Amino acid sequence: MTTRLSVPSLRTWVGRRRRALFDKFDDYPSMVGIVGTVIALAILIGVAMLLRADRQARYDHALERAQSVASVVAVSLGGNIAIYDTLLKEMVREAEDSQLPLFPERVRDRVRFGQTLSRDFLYDAYVVNKSGRISAPLDPVHDKIVNVADRDYFRSHEANPSLGLYISQPYASRTHGGVLSVALTRRISAEDRSFAGVAVIALRLDRLGAQANVNDSSDLRSIDVVEEKGTVLACSPCERARPGTLVNLPGDATREQNLTAALSFPEGARAADYRSVRVPGASMYVVVTPSTRALAREWRRHALIFGSIAAICAATLIAGSWLLVAAIRTRASTAARLVNLSVTDGLTGLSNRRALDAKLAREWRRAKRSGSPFSVLFVDIDHFKHLNDEYGHSAGDSVLRAVAKNIGGHIRRDADMVARYGGEEFAVVLPDTDAAGAAAVAEQVRRDVERLHIAHVGSAAGLVTVSVGAATGVPGACDSADAVLKAADEQLFIAKQSGRNRVSTVVLREPDLSSDEVGKAGDVS
């Protein structure tokens, strides 16, 4: 059977739990400061973790952007190279079909159209015969004899019949005034498959950079086009290497490692800081480097703002927590003082009637559990009204304080108590004290007050004296602490009737003992 709490019961339970929690904080106020400090540190740690994650996210986004740009540029270059390769294949086919060093007009028109599309990136095309001489230039007007047998593309095709499309190393053009160029080439074969020459399309490296340029590149440090052997073909911007620069590579590195090594400048840069994509159909790569400097600058600004806010919040929380600790301690101290004032007599500094009643009840319960004797003294200043009338209330107050101090000086144990019962009367609670012990304490009080030698003309002794009534009870022989207190009061009356400045004692033996049956007072003065 499931027990369901009603709404009032739930509210009561929550209220109790809340009060219990607040009571814990009152007992241990430092817990508030410690909890506040821990929460503040947790906030700082959490913000630091979020900022770190944000930095990594920004870095990952920059790399994704670099990868995307590299792919776009590579596809764009691959499309141009595919067009140029188609023109090369047509040049090779015409040359092989006619076996003449010709540049057919239709092929020339298509090359011109390709030049228009590539914005002067493709600036020349020609056929090289098997001896290395340019025999069919795109522009036939000049009659200058140019031999390119020393070029790497010529030697590579001559030595390797199955080379296919070959991209040369950068070179200074001999037909266009030394313009830095790179050649896309294919082999021309004779009918017997022997080497017959090379079809060449020349590209200007200074125009290749335009192909790699991206309009929105504020978050990119550079875009580089690199030949697989380590030669930089184009760059935008060219802050680390110029086109045609050959970067030294480790001899035992693979091609991918070669590329990473070629682009790892400044030295010590991580390969993970770059994104590279191979150009489709060509032995070159597009490598994009994100602008980590701009990324770090933006992240630092972001971290400074949120870190400052988190630090201010944490500092405020810590300061507020410990100020609350101080406030709780002040409140507790004030409450303790109020409680102390509520149970303390303002004139004498002794416990008051309220504290006496609580003490009697508490000690009687303890006496009932242990079966030990329980004694109470009643002390009254003799002829106090006459003292007030003769010497004034100020002198009377001084006498009250002096007598209270004297009585309090006889209290040796923590369990004992002296209280001002009212007016000039005082009560002394003596737990675990038998009749003999109570009588001894009573006599010491009476004698020591007399020895104060405070003048009092209205007293028989000419000094301030006290009368003391003492009663001792044992749980089972009497029914309550009030009965013992009442018996002590009755003994005080007997002592006063017997001439004052004396002690009268009694031991309660029956629960229904009346005042007529109390033991005879003994004058022990």
TrEMBL record:
Entries under CDD domains matching the protein: GGDEF (cd01949), PDC1_DGC_like (cd12914)
Coiled coil start-end: none
SMART domains xrefs: GGDEF
Domain of life: Bacteria
Domain GGDEF intervals: 372-508
GO MF entry, a single one: diguanylate cyclase activity
Its EC number(s): 2.7.7.65
Stored InterPro entries: Diguanylate_Cyclase, GGDEF_dom, Nucleotide_cyclase, Rev_trsase/Diguanyl_cyclase
GO cellular component terms, A-Z: plasma membrane
Keywords, sorted A to Z: Membrane, Transmembrane, Transmembrane helix
GO BP, one annotated term: negative regulation of bacterial-type flagellum-dependent cell motility
A Pfam family reported for this protein in Swiss-Prot or TrEMBL: GGDEF
UniProt catalytic activity: 2 GTP = 3',3'-c-di-GMP + 2 diphosphate
Membrane-crossing segments per the record: 31-51, 303-325
Name this protein carries in UniProt: diguanylate cyclase
Organism: Pandoraea horticolens
